[in-house]
Amino acid sequence: MTPGEDSSLTISERNWEILILTSSSAVFLLTFYCLLVGITTVFTHLYYFPIILLAYRYQKKGVIYSLVLSTSYLLIELLLQYSNTVEIFSALLRVLCFTGVAIVVAYLSTNLTRKQQDFFNLSQFNESIISNANVWLAVIDAKGNIITWNRAAEDISGYSGKEVTGKNSIWKQLYPDSNYRKKITGIITTITREKQFFTNFETVIITKDGRSKTISWNTRTIPHEQGVLDHFVAIGIDITERKQGEMALRESEERFRMLLQNANDGIFVFELSPKGPGKFLIVNDQMCRLSGYTPDELTHMTVTDIDVPEQFEKVPGIMKRLMENGYAVFETDLLTKDRKRIPVEVSTRVFDLQGKQTFLSMVRDITERKRAEDQLKESETFLNEVGEIALVGGWQLDIRTNDLLFTKETYRIHEVPEDTIINLSQAILFFDIPGRSTLEAALQRCTEEGEPFDLELPFTNAKEKKLWTRTIGRAVRIDGKVVKLEGTFQDITERKNAEEMLKKSRIYLAEAMDLAHLVNWEFDVASGIFTFNDRFYALYGTTAEREGGYQMTVEAYAREFVHPDESDLVASEVQKAINSPDPNYTTKIEHRIIRRDGEIRNIIVQFAITKDEQGRTIKTHGANQDITERKTAENELKLLYRELEERVKDRTSELQKTNEALKESSERVQLLLNSTAEAIYGVDMQGLCTLCNTAFLRILGYERKEQVIGRKMHDLIHHTHPDGTPCPISDCRIFNAFLLGKGTHADNDIFWRADGTSFPVEYWSFPMRRDDNIIGVVVTFIDITERKHLEEQNLKSLKEKEMLLKEIHHRVKNNMQVISSLLFMQERLVKDVKVREILRESQNRIRSLALVHEELYRSANLDEIDYSAYLHKIVRQLSESYNVDPTAIQTQIFSEKVFLDINKAVPCSLILNELMSNAIKHAFPSGRKGIITIDFKFESGTYTLIFSDDGIGLAENITFEWTESLGMQLIAGLVKQLNGTIVSDRKAGTKYTITFPE
Q1: Residue 81: pLDDT over 80
Q2: What pTM was computed for the model?
């Protein structure tokens, strides 16, 4: 037995053990005694008592214990009666009897225990059913005393079984109102007298916590053994919620009737007839008001009687949607009794009523909504116009379909047509890759959590234009659920550029402040504390760590850094600024400071003030500049100035002598100018004439120099272009001498004479300098009228020669074509294949030369041809000559615009002819496919021609030095003629790289 088991069980088990052990010991001792004295029969019957006890108590184990006890008896018999065979045999039979009795008793005991356990389990099960039933179960005697009270009864009433069992006072507690209790007692008495039980009898009880509950009672009688009805089973069901539901349902029906009649929407019910919509079954007052008909009139009408004619053709489609989806929403016009049209929205649902398909429709007057929609469209148009003016676009995202709506400005920023439909995935692709994930995450948070966002991201529109854009978005909720996102979209590229420029400006400002030894600071008047920075402390030869931070009291600053002789001056100026009523007050102070290393330096302090709304000075802020070097320079300058004054006095007399010499020199210069045949004049920085010579006056038709001195020369002689259009001073090359600071030259311009006529001139302008500063320009010009006549004659002669040369090239080309044709004719007559091949190669060589002359004939410049264009023509010509299948052998040409003169074009063309012919004939045997590549370029004074094919390649024993091939020999000789080099590469097909100088 475990310590946790019941003590009564422990005592009972111990008593059993004592009883069995005592009886077994007594029988054993008695048997031993009787056998000693010769008694062999009577005592043996006593063995049945302990054997039966063992089998009854311990069942299967008891049989084993009984067998042990019987065996002990048999051993005593053998020990004491071993010579009495009859007695031994009798003892053996008795042992078998003992064992049989033990087995029978154990079997009966086992069945009895099982029956007891089954009965106990059944009792427990029945008690569990009663206890755990979800209905109130109570067993009551004839006097109303509670015999059984289950857990549901406790939960419903609030009274426990202990409180009510064996009592009948519970009924007064459940029905505290004596009148009500008397009433239901009388009803119960009447019912039980007639039926002996009642069914679904409803009463209202008061629970222990004071709540009212409605209970539905059912009773059954429990007859006594003699048939007397002295016990009842009462079954109660808590129907409080059902009663409340029924009450709510009645109230709901009443509210529905009131809602139907008082609804703002028209409501009607109709059913289908074989011909379509049937008559109205139910209509509400609002439907009558909308249509103008009475309820009686409408119930004798059908839906089609109030539909407009154009709606009839839409009815089949609406009915189809109704049958498929169970509902349909559509807009139409309602035809009233006085034949007016009212725009309405109809929402119809289908339901089953007594086995018939019936339709419930709600009709809403949307006249105001239509008007509002029109106003909304006008508002959207207005917002689009405002967005275009403000350069702010709008967008809206339907999160169910991922479709986007853009305003005009948003379309303009994307540079896509306004009728383009763009979904979210396409819109995100306009943003640069680093910003896409940021935007997608923001959109996801806004959709799931309603979190707004404001992003600035790089953007590339449909025209590949790089922009910066600002996207603002927020969630739109309906019934607490996010249904769409909307926001604004703005091109902020200019602002970003401005911010970048501002950032650079700040950097430049910081660098400028460092260069200028400028530092800034701020002073709070109320606290008397300065705020400095690292640049400030650097000026004073200290650091923030040494001074304990970036803030310092005014007293500490004056004590530590201001020179004692000037502290009063500084304090006075600061106090004057603080007391000034002028909000724009600024001032400057120069004073000395003492650095931490003891060095005394000079600074200039410029500062301003900041006032609050009451006009009180709350802050001063300014900048300090180290002017020690400037002060030193000023002192040195003062000394130099005094020395200069002394020297000026000495030099004044020397200057008078110099002026006289200069006057004499000027007269000599004027005589020199007047003696030249070229016209010369000078202008100052304002373009006014300062000097001129006699040739100038003669060529331009002026009589004396006073007519031009002091006048603006550009407006006087250079005001108009040769074509008669005005010549602004910005186009004047003479004026450029001022800007460029160097001489200019022109020989295709005109000057204007005093009489208004013009003439061609060639002029040179040179800036006049004094101490490396330009003080004016000197212009020399000559009349080139006769030269122009000669140039026109020479130009005419040159054009005639060019025409003649073109004709020569044309005739050379024609002659070569004739030679090529003769060779072609000869080829047709020759039977020998090798000879025919030689003739064809000769034709191709002549054609390549003829093509050079044709290009020269067509070229605007007779000295050279566009060789990149020539390459395409000669490749096409050779391909046609050898009947090359373009799908088998492809030719790729890579060439910039490269020009060659005839001396290089002819040999280069022959080389290309030979290489191309060899590749077509030998590189791709047996229909092999391949690619021929030609790359021709000019870099750093060297021409490079790379010819390659991916054919079978060239044998290792064939080289330009050892070959019997005329073509290879010709290529080597032509490369040598060009002073070039040729390198072959046979790793993959054949590749030739030819280079030759310009």
Answers
A1: no
A2: 0.28
